[in-house]
Amino acid sequence: MRILIAEDEPRAMRGLRSLILSLSPEYQIVAEAADGSQALELMQTTHPDVVFTDLKMPRMDGMALIRAAKAMSLSAEYVLVTAYEEFEVARQAIGLGVFDYLVKPITVEDVQRVLDRLEAKRSGAGDAQEARGSLKEQYPEAHPLVRKTLHIIEEGYASRLNQKELATTLGISQEYLCYLFNKDVGEPFSKFLRKYRIEIAKQLLADGTVQRDEVPYRVGFSDPKYFGKVFREVTGMSVTEYLKLL
User: Fold this and answer.
1) Residues 128 and 84 sit within 8 Å (Cβ to Cβ)
2) Report field, pTM of the whole predicted structure over 0.70
3) Which CATH architecture has domain 2-123?
4) What is the DSSP letter of 106?
5) Is the sign of the CA dihedral 240, 242, 245, 246 positive or negative?
6) Rg of the chain taking only CA atoms, in angstroms
7) Beta-carbon contacts of residue 193 (< 8 Å; ≥ 6 apart)
8) What letter would DSSP give residue 140?
9) Could you give the CA distance from residue 72 to residue 67 in angstroms, rounded to a whole number?
10) Residue range(s) in the chain whose domain bears CATH number 1.10.10.60
């Protein structure tokens, strides 16, 4: 696994580097950057599989780095490293496509947990979407705009999605997208999205690769209580009851 570390504190950089290298000879540190701007340049030449980035850095912070890299279509997984007081910001970043976060002071157990989950994802374990096949394959006769919407749901279910913004992205009215989606999929967009997120959540809970209290954030919910309510509405049982069946 090729890893880039972006960290402006030299001591923290050395510590994280040592922790990662101590875990497996298969982990390779391909680059180290002192700020987000430098990290972005290095990503283009080193092509890391994973970027560990501090949240607060000079010139370009961790979130700005991730947004810029995504805009440039640079493919990598991102792990935010943050201080305790920035904890909630890091949790919210999960909905923006960040794979995970580490809260300082970082322990070897923290790093091992994240790397194990990354390895599982890279090997296909716990990939609920792959196991079910793509949504576009499930609705082969759907209108091309509906198929594009389904693809957006697959790729962005963990982020904020709403029908109005999707319609704007697709260049059509919200009313027309609502009509097409209902006709071809058989239920409203909002209901379908909730059910899809819960199906992903069920797979994550069954795999055990994500801690239970992190699952809501992984599937696009910012409120764990609301997630629990939706989970019961969709499955007819609570998360605890579901886990007992596994």
Assistant:
1) no
2) no
3) 3-Layer(aba) Sandwich (3.40)
4) P
5) negative
6) 19
7) 153, 157, 161
8) T
9) 9
10) 125-246
First to last CA, the chain: 31
Q: Give the HSE-up count for residue 102: Cα atoms under 13 Å, Cβ half-sphere.
A: 24
Task: For the domain made up of 125-246, give the CATH fold.
Answer: Arc Repressor Mutant, subunit A (1.10.10)
Q: Which tens digits make up the pLDDT trace of 7-28?
A: 999 999 999 999 999 999 999 9
Q: Are 132 and 200 in contact (CB under 8 A)?
A: no
pLDDT tens, position by position, 53-63: 998 899 899 98
CATH 3.40.50.2300: which residues of the chain?
2-123
Residue that is written with structure tokens 């082969």 in the block: 140
CA distance 99 to 11: 24
User: Does 224 sit behind a cis peptide bond, omega within 30 degrees of 0 on the bond before it?
Assistant: no
